[in-house]
Amino acid sequence: MEISSKEYTHFFSNNTIVPVDQSSFKSESSASKEKQSCCGGIKIFLGALSFVYFAKALSGSYLKSTITQIERRFDIPSSLVGVIDGSFEIGNLLIIILVSYFGAKLHRPRIIGAGCLIMSAGTFLIAMPQFFMGRYRYERFPSTINSTLSLSPCLQEKSQTPLSALEKSQAKINAGCEKEAGSSMWIYVLLGNLLRGIGETPIQPLGITYIDDYAVEENAALYIGCVQTAAIIGPIFGFLLGSLCAKLYVDIGFVDLDSVTISPKDAEWVGAWWLGYLIAGVISVLAGIPFWFLPKHLPKPESRKDSSTSSEHSKFIIEENKDQRTSYWQQAKLAEMAKGFFPSLKNLFGNPVYILYLCASIIQFNSLIGMVTYKPKYIEQQYGQTSSKTNFVIGLINIPAVAFGIFSGGLIMKKFGIGVLGAAKLSLGSSFFGYLLLLSLFAMGCENSDVAGLTVSYHGAKLMTDYEEALFSECNSGCSCSKNDWDPICGENGVTYVSACLAGCQASNGSGKSTVFFNCSCVGTFESSQSSSAVVGPCQKGNECPKRFLYFLVISVITSYTLSVGGTPGYILLLRCIKPHLKSFALGIYTLAIRVLAGIPAPVYFGVAIDTTCLKWGSKRCGGRGACRLYDSSALRYVYLGLTLVLGTVSIFFSIAVLWVLRKRSSPQDETLSANGERGACGTKSRKDNFVNSDQLIQSTYWPEKETRL
């Protein structure tokens, strides 16, 4: 075939006279170098993005591990802690659409790097209240404080307490009120988490689409699986860091630790929650550095250069030649890019698979976010574990199962060449069996601890009346006790009493953690009592509880793995069933919907529901309700697991609808070819449709052939 002079001139417009044979030889050499550059560049970006995912997941999971610590430190209920947790999603909401839509047209790596700096600033801000608020104060009877003064817990007459001691105690309370009344330091935690959300916004939509644009098509699912696996490794270290910090007293380095009279087993214990945020902030700064040195574009893989459907095309780019495209990018204005915003939005919402999958994901994430947020609290209250041990167990046992499940999902997709229809089946199957396993956890809870006046009467019978009235009995009627105090002691009969005063104790010996109470009238009247003494701190759960906790861990690990297997197939389903140039925008809308309709409300209404199971609320120093000290174990189990299962079941019905639509749009031939990676359920009904240049194909019936292959 002869080449016309115009075509020849146009082809060599940027060169001087070059022999054809030398040019072809040069092109072969440059192609080899370009291939190496492409592979190296995408792998460097993959490593950098994986580290960023690790950093943001570490700080996010550390926040989950400190939920109970923040609740106790700032004396706030679970519902307000849920608002603080949801502020991260609010930060995403503020800029997610702008970042996902316009960020794809700009320098994506540098935008991710800037987000890391903002994320680290927010993490540092969360830790700041520790350095501005006073030392942590907890409720303790004066006799348990290191002192030579010995007082009777049961104050039958105020004259038993020396006046100087009462005045000193009252003066401390008044001083605390003056400081507390003028500050709500938890707001800084909320603002810092909000800033974290803003900084994290560009990482997912820009990072994932950057990989999908420049990676070899067959490796896209595996690369995404690697990134998501790194995002799960982060929580392992986040919860382990939370476990370490929970062992350290909150004011470590500021007070004498020998003067601390509470232990990590107490409901009032607060660990060094602020320390982990300083560490997470430094890691976020380091994670953002490589992105400032990565290029805006990478060379396209050879397999994508000659295919019009194998790479992400923007409607704002005229694909004539490289020089014209570069010139157009430089001259593009923000207003010109914005013209296609609403048509693009209409195209997305006209796609039934995208909408149904979005609904399924929103409801499922409501279930998962609520479950993960309050899982440490559930383990602490249900099985009587310390915050440190709870975080250690979640980080070392539960999270690795999730990481392995997500990676397994990506590996299965690549190994068996599963298409879009197969991805939908795999995602549905993992959700169904995962929630089915979760159902068995209802039988693995512990009964309520025996707490006199709250769960049992002072004579040993199960309590059915209002707990505030039941706190007082004949055995403590002669004592001047407050129903608002929470200073638990453990009687030798195995029953916990809200305070030494309500236990009717007449004398005490020792100080600090070694204090022993004697002549406790309420302990002696209990039906199984053989002695009337008690020690500081609550009693341990029943003998069956440790065994049930072990069963809970085993089922929880299997459930976590099963649910997470569907993670990567879900991502592939999302990416392959939309127009190529809308991938960044679709991921942005998807993330926005998850943040607004799941990330923000789920922790709040889960927290409100959990608050309804509280049996004993703490009291703030200046009056008013503080953090919950004791929960009804049975009610907590049904509320926590029940909400999770109901939401999960609804999401499964939407997943079934997704599969039904995909089956309806695919022919048997498409399903067969999909297994070989050639075509899939999201493909058009005929190969001819792929070449029709009509606006009708932009609607939900149009999914390019490339989007059906891995």
From TrEMBL:
Where does the record place the Kazal-like domain?
A: 469-524
Q: List where in the cell it is found.
A: Cell membrane
Superkingdom field = Eukaryota
Reactions catalysed, semicolon-separated, are: 3,3',5'-triiodo-L-thyronine(out) = 3,3',5'-triiodo-L-thyronine(in); L-thyroxine sulfate(out) = L-thyroxine sulfate(in); L-thyroxine(out) = L-thyroxine(in)
Q: Give the stretches traversing the membrane.
A: 40-59, 80-104, 110-132, 230-250, 270-294, 354-372, 392-412, 424-444, 549-575, 587-610, 639-662
User: Which GO-annotated molecular functions does the record name?
Assistant: bile acid transmembrane transporter activity; sodium-independent organic anion transmembrane transporter activity
Q: How does it sit in the bilayer?
A: Multi-pass membrane protein
Please classify the protein's predominant subcellular localization into one broad category. membrane
Show where the Major facilitator superfamily (MFS) profile domain sits.
45-666
Which one GO biological process term can you cite for this protein? monoatomic ion transport
GO cellular component terms, semicolon-separated: basolateral plasma membrane
UniProtKB keywords: Cell membrane, Disulfide bond, Glycoprotein, Ion transport, Lipid transport, Membrane, Transmembrane, Transmembrane helix, Transport
Any Pfam family hit: Kazal_2
Give the family from UniProt.
Belongs to the organo anion transporter (TC 2.A.60) family.
- The protein here is known as Solute carrier organic anion transporter family member
User: Which organism is the protein's source?
Assistant: Pomatorhinus ruficollis (streak-breasted scimitar babbler)
